[in-house]
Amino acid sequence: MQFLTRTAIVSLQLTLFSAVHGAKWTYDGPQGQDHWSERYPYCGGALQSPIDFKSDLLRFDPTLRPIEVQNYNLSPNEQLTLGNNGHSVQLSLSPMMSISSLHNQYTAAQLHFHWGSASRPAGSEHTVNNKQYAAELHVVHYNSDKYPNISTAVDKSDGLAVLGVLVEVGMFNPAFEHILKFINGIKYRDQKVKVPGFNIRALLPTRLDEYYRYDGSLTTPPCYPSVLWTVFRNPITISRKQFLSLATALYSSNAQDSAPMPLNNNYRKTQPVDSRLILVSFKERRGLHGTLTVTSPLTRKQIIQQLLVGDLGDLADEDLHKLLPSGSEKHHAGKKKDLKTQQSERLAKSKQQTLNPSLWKKSQANRHVGKLGLAENTLSYVSLEQRVSHQLKQSHAENQMVQALRDAVFPELNLKSYLECRSDLALPTIRYILQGRPTDEATELNHSLTKAMMNQRKTSTALEKDLPMTQYNGHSTATVSRKPQSQGYPHPWLLPMEWED
Ligand SMILES: *[C@@H]1O[C@H](CO)[C@@H](O)[C@H](O)[C@H]1NC(C)=O
Ligand SMILES: *[C@@H]1O[C@H](CO)[C@@H](O)[C@H](O)[C@H]1NC(C)=O
Ligand SMILES: [Zn+2]
Hints:
Residues 325-361 are annotated as: Disordered. InterPro entries: CA_dom, CA_dom_sf, Carbonic_anhydrase_a-class, Carbonic_anhydrase_a-class_CS. One of its GO terms (molecular function) is carbonate dehydratase activity. Its cofactor is Zn(2+). This protein has helices spanning 8-21, 36-39, 150-153, 174-180, 240-249, 297-309, 312-317, 320-323, 329-333, 337-355, 357-362, 364-371, 381-394, 401-419, 427-434, 440-466, 496-500; strands at 52-53, 58-60, 69-70, 79-84, 89-92, 98-99, 106-115, 127-128, 131-132, 135-143, 160-169, 192-196, 211-216, 227-232, 236-238, 278-280, 292-293. By secondary structure, it is an alpha/beta fold. It has 2 domains: 16-280, Carbonic Anhydrase II, CATH 3.10.200.10; 297-481, no CATH class. α6 (297-309) packs across α12 (364-371) and α14 (401-419) packs across α15 (427-434). The radius of gyration is 24 Å and the shape is globular. The N and C termini lie far apart (48 Å).
């Protein structure tokens, strides 16, 4: 997604800002996406977007309600601004438009597209089991319960909600034509035209109840991890002719530039998943074992409580598996079948409770989480970057900006995400929580965990080699969440984990 300007005034401010910082990023070449993190350290950091929606990361969440949008049907009397910002075609939206079905109210700001090229109609940012669609639409909203405008919201951890729509080539799309009609008026960077309002809802797929949900980031610099992502399962279509118009009409260069640069292939590559999970509001139609259900938020709070104030010895001995990535749940599924069914039935209820502030306050775990300053605070990425940059300058370690920022935000973001069931608990987060407990037990637990995770990684690597059917892309190594299926090991007691202990 893009965080870019709506009004001429803001545009001017950002242009000045860009000029001062020499900030001109592109998708390819010397300023291309592999170099974004040199100027924009969050681009090399935690919880980046887009990602590949890989089947084995999906978790069914029965509490995910259908997306509801308000006032998307705009009157033709409403004037919208369509612009070419050099990275995309962007349409300003009415501040009356909103998403009403999330925990906060999110007000619409703009929509824009990412697409491939005439010769290669593959330019979506999110992919589904490595399948890339022709294009992708992003409708960007900000948290208007907490922030006065999108500029204030963009660098906050709970600032934005984006609706993503995958686009494939097929039937002619009349709603898309409301934009395409005016595209020749914005061929060059910084050009803008006024366009009449239309029914924006018609750009979304018919079904708003089936979607992927995860915690991620802006997909363009400065890449702040501030986005609650909703990507609809069902793509919309545009005709081949419509796709070709989009892919060939625009330039990323200004009108006066002597060498015009075509504007296409404006998508970011998929990013490492880290410890994230992808919640889905639907069950997969096919798939060997169906879709796993998320573990209950109540259980998750209890685990954090135990890490903060409970008996760490117990965790190290009996409950270690609770701390391991949730793919390993498959392993225990047999033993706890009844429990598991009950758990998923209780899930809807306990998630509701999580949302009730008075119950949330009574929770012991949360009180301690709060004390540590974890999970409840909103992170403000700009001020954090200034603080970290200042500290690094004092110790002459400016080159460690990317890693320093990642270390600063990852545990908190991971913990928040874990409590919302959208992540596994990562080892750095556990270590971070354990810092408040300088005891032998903490060291022992850390040691047991490190060992258990190493073993998981070893055995899963071995297993991947034996399973040519399983598809892995380049990022799968970032998730340590593979555990051998028991049928892969006829003698589970031969696992190295069993006899090292
Ligand atoms: C956004 O709100 C902040 C805080 O009220 C204000 O300082 C800023 O000027 C506003 N920005 C825009 C673009 O309206
Ligand atoms: C945890 O264990 C790992 C490996 O044994 C070690 O590198 C790390 O420093 C330990 N961390 C803490 C907080 O004790
Ligand atoms: Zn986008």
